[in-house]
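Page 42, continued from yesterday. The earlier attempt failed because a stray header line got pasted into the input along with the sequence. Redoing it now with the clean sequence only.
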Amino acid sequence: MLAALLAASPVLSDYKDSYSRGLEAAKDGDWAAVRQRMQEAIADNPTAAPRVRLYGQRWEPYVPQFYLGLAAYKQGDCATALAQWRSSANGSVISGVPNLKAEQDRGAAACDTRVAQQPIPEPPKTDPRAGTGTGTGTTAPATPDGGREPPKPPPPKIEPPRTEPPKTEPPKAEPPKAEPPKAPPKPAETPLAQRVPAALLEAFRNYLGGRYAEVARINPDSFSDARSRAQAYLIRAAARQIQAEIDNSAAGLDAARADIRAVRAANPSLVPDPALFSPRFRSLYSTTR
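This time it went through. C-alpha cells are written below.
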C-alpha cells in the first residue's frame, strides 16, 4: 500500500513521524522500537520543545531524549539512560512536564543505586620477591664465606637422532571441478520517487508539513492509474477534514466525505494508515458510506 511505503520512505520521513511511532511503541512496552524511533527523531531534530503539533489537533511535548533514556533504562542500560536524561537538550524542557519528570527522577535514582552497588575490581597482587636474586624469583644459596654461589649452568641438551621420513609418492592431481552456473543478478528495485507520481509525493509532503490548503489543490482525476487516483483522493480528504475542523466548516466536511466515497470507488480495499492519519479522520472514513 502506498501509504505504508511513504511512511517508511526517507523522502517523507520526518522527526514528527518517528516521534509519533516512538510514543505508540512506548504505550505497547516495545522498548527496542522506542529506542530506534527516538534515535531517528533526534537525528532529524535534536531540539526538545514544550509543545509541538504531531498531526491534526494533536499537540505533545517533544522530548525524544527522555524517551530514549527511558527505553535504555527499561533494557538495563543505565549509562545511556543517565546520559540522555542529564543532557542539556532534555533538561531544558523536561522540568516543565511534571509526570515525565517524576518518572525520570525515579529511574535516575534507581540507576544511581545500581552504579553505586557495583564492586570495584581489586588490582592484581604482585610477589614482593619477584625480580630479586638471579632474576627467577628466588635467591641464590649462600656460600660458607657469606657470598653467593654463581648459578649452575643448565645441563646440555641431548638432540634425538634424526630419522628420515618415509618416501611417499606425490598425490595425483585431480581434475578441476566445474563451478555451478552463477545466478543472474537481480534487477535493481526502482526507487520510490520513480514509482510514485511526483504530484502525489508532493501532496504527502504538504500534508505531513501541515500545509492542508496546498494538499486540497491536488486533482485526483489527473492520475491515469486507479491506485494513484485513490491515494490522491485519500490525502485530499484528510486535508479537507482537518481544515474543516479548524474553520468549523460543514461544507468542508461534506467535501471530505465526497473524497472518501471516491476513494472507495477507485480502490475499495484501501484503508488509512494509523501512522499517517489521525483517529478523527479514520473515524470519519469508517462511517462515511
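Notes: Strands lie at 49-55, 58-62.
Reminder to self: strip header lines before submitting.
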